Amino acid sequence: MFKKILIANRGEIALRVIVACRELGIKTVAVYSEADENSLHVRFADEDVCIGPARSADSYLNVPAIISAAEITGADAIHPGYGFLSESAYLAEVCEACHIRFIGPDPNVIRLMGDKARARRAMKKAGLPMLPGSDGPVESEEKAVKVAWDIGYPVIIKAVAGGGGRGMRVVRLPSEMGAALRTAQREAEAAFGVGDVYVEKYLENPRHIEFQVLGDHHGNLVHLGERECSIQRRHQKLLEESPSLALTDKIRRKMGSLVVDAAKAVQYTNAGTFEFLLDDGKFYFMEVNTRLQVEHPVTEMVTGIDIVKEQIRIAAGERLSFKQSEVTFTGHSIECRINAEDPETFAPSPGVIHAFSVPGGPGARIDTFAHSECTVSPYYDSMVAKIITHGRDRQEAIARMRRTLEMTVVDGIKTTVPLHLKILAEPDFVAGRLGTAFMERFVPKAKPGSLAAAV
Ligand code: MV4
Q1: Beta strand 207-215 with 197-201: parallel, antiparallel or unpaired?
Q2: Where are the alpha helices (DSSP H) in 98-208?
Q3: DSSP-derived secondary structure letter, 341
Q4: Which of 134, 168, 284 to mutate to test the pocket of ligand 1 (most atoms within 8 A of CB)?
């Protein structure tokens, strides 16, 4: 087992990894930017190293600075958390070259899944059902129109290097294709440095369902069930739950076994998430995220498995200590992401939190870096806390979420707490009638003449 792990991240996920390390008796190294000097992840790590100025590009994305910090402190592994360098095949490779273990999949698997068009081909070959679409990048308007003609409108243009919704455009008419293609290519180039895009059939209101997997270096691979992530705004998830009301036991077993086979086909190791769209009882592969995800706690709550500790054990070469048949699902879990945002306009609302308090109690978990008089920096992601509840059933998980949100105090900044209370009060939410269009009811209709909201 590792003696010391460097956490190449900040905020709640850095604390989450420290928690896992403490339970495993592993020493920790925090890295931090000048903006995070007084953060809890720095206070609770055994050692800390400043890696640069506030801007992410100069600190949390600075591979040489992070590797140097690991070498100086003698860390034998790096946990990248989520975001930042978590899906950087480059960091994983540099770690390998420096004899530091990267806690994540093999760099080649990260690279494969990072190219959404390649991943699509590989996963199709491995047996996952796909939406009809182009079998690789489309360069020209003519080719895109031809693909759309074959599969039928509407179609969606997605960035090959994308994921998370950036560089996506829905096209409903051939006459819109040229402009949409050029916009998507330009956006993709600006966001990822790679302008390639592909085309697939667009579903109007599917559910976004993802499966969690864990694979060790001895050929063992299990799934930990699914998460329902249909409640998103501008492709930022807001609320997730497990299990999904949309899956019957039969379809869950079918998807689970297909995911396990597909992951084994690429010798997937460590933690991963297989994303699907579910529509009309049928499911379609979308992409694989080769990292720990923000919403991993809902899976932990229903399975009782500590995903971060498993990631660390796997990276250290240990075997998974349980078989698929030993993974059981108990009750229901919901996560609400509390962001420092105006709940109406969604504009970021950084600043000082003067008072911060979230009640615990049965079935309530809070993952956060926040505390009274802490600063929410404008430099980083606006998420300040995750409230996760568990109950014997969905109703109990919802009731626990409601009472927790009602008793949450975050003074000094605006947060998404009121928005979550509105979502939980929606009859469609309570009835489990969810889809990717769910949040549209909360979006003010675009004024005539204004730019239509992206996708
Ligand atoms: C789609 C889709 C419908 N059809 N692809 C959004 C994030 C990225 N991971 C993929 N996403 C989607 N891809 C096809 N072919 C619907 C989504 C989607 C979505 C779209 C609009 C508004 C909210 C959404 C929430 C989840 C998924």
Answers
A1: unpaired
A2: 107-114, 116-125, 141-151, 177-192
A3: B
A4: 168
- Separation of CA 272 and ligand 1 centre (Å): 19
State the CATH class of domain 132-201: alpha beta
Pick among 3.40.630.10, 1.10.10.60, 3.30.160.620, 3.40.50.20: CATH of 4-103: 3.40.50.20
Active site residue 120: no
* Helices vs strands, H then E, count in the chain: 14, 20
- Top CATH class of 207-453 equals alpha beta
Domain chopping of the chain, boundaries: 4-103, 132-201, 207-453
Pocket-forming residues, ligand 1, beta carbon under 6 Å: 131, 156, 163-165, 200-203, 206, 208, 232, 235, 277, 286, 436, 455
pLDDT of 244 strictly over 50: yes
Q: Say if residues 73 and 29 touch (Cβ distance below 8 Å).
A: yes
pLDDT tens digits for range 262-294: 999 999 999 999 999 999 999 999 999 999 999
If one residue of 290, 436, 441 were mutated to test the ligand 1 pocket, choosing by the most ligand atoms within 8 A of its CB, it would be 436
Name which of 66, 71, 79 is nearest 98 in CA terms: 71
